Amino acid sequence: MHALLFLLAACVVDDVAGSDDTGWADTGSPAYDEVRSDVPREAEPDDSDVAELVAGINGFGTDLYALLAADSSEDLALSPLSIEVALAMTRAGARGETAAQIDEALRFTLEDERLHAAMDALALGLEARPDAGVSQEIAPEIALANSLWGQVGYGFETDFLDLLARWYGAGMNLVDFAGDAEGARAAINGWVAERTHDLIPELLPAGAVSELTRLVLVNTVYFAGAWDVAFPEEATAPAAFTALDGSSTTVEMMHLDGQELPWGAGDGWQAVAIPVDGQQFSLVVVLPDEGRFTEVEAGLDAAFLAEVDAAMAATPVDLALPRFAVDTPVALNDALRSLGMVDAFDPGLADFTGMSGSGELYIGRVQHEARVEVDENGIVAAAGTAVVMDGTAEPEDAVAVTADRPFLWYLRDEPTGAVLFLGRVVAPS
Prior knowledge:
Layout: E1 4-6, E2 14-16, E3 32-35, H1 50-70, E4 76-78, H2 80-91, H3 96-106, H4 112-127, E5 141-151, E6 155-157, H5 158-168, E7 172-175, H6 177-195, E8 215-226, E9 237-242, E10 248-266, E11 269-276, E12 281-288, H7 293-298, H8 302-311, E13 313-322, E14 324-331, H9 333-338, E15 363-374, E16 378-389, E17 399-402, E18 407-413, E19 419-425
């Protein structure tokens, strides 16, 4: 039998107020105590399974996009990476059929330690990517952070806590859901706000946790990067954008003319990749032909992303792209059930005995929010996920890419192909 760690107020803990060993400064968020495993985070994990992990992340991302897009007619943003990390931490405590269903829904094909090692390797590789010398306009940054928020006095398996410390660098923050659920929610939201530079100030809405909550697992992803070639601000001008329903609105359209960019086309679409941070990342814009957005969107899956990537070649492009900002807060319970992750949400069927031997834990809510802002200088994006348990040559003719109608977009890590953020713009704001 695995030993249980009872998180008591009398434990030897660190008292923190919005700071931890990642170097985040105290900004006055509610104070809480943190218990950390003695197991250090793996600094050089085996990265041989990262490609297989990325294939699963991208496939899950397009699966989830299809479900969320079907229920909405608005702009959409989500971070497949953030959701997968938060639920991989949750998967560490799942057993039996509950674990098998999580694997199916999340497209986890790696087992146990290989899954977590690959997650660690991907996260550390991403964080090592930005080059501070690329831009003066936007300081390049990508940061992932993980944390646990546990009920004081509740018994959690030490093996579970050691695993999350080893592969995710996550400590356990002690809060009192039973006595002050609102205070615990404020502490979690404050932690998320700090790590997303206030792009996501309130990940958990009112009522998301209660006196019955025993654990919340949280991931955040923050990205900031400048275009390798900025859009000249003086070229930005008002222009018409035609929405899905045929109505027209005025947007601030940015222009980048005659620039050699990765460009490709296929049946009913063309796509352009805008390099970010020394070509470490790129924002890929997929522009369906007029009248074919719904058809192209319906075909969005991991194979389509691969088709887009394979079609691209350096081409002179006259690019017109609207400034846009998309913010999507969403509870993912129903979508994850639709993908086959059913037992985890059922108090009578959920098996999270790897977290606690009590057998009472189940997922009450999976809350996600992603925000993306694109302007002349670059892209800034943040996401949070909470699992509540509870060349000199003759110039060629430039291809015209004018995104004056609904389009798809995704932010891609170039070395691995991992889709960090994914969404659409149908009515830019």
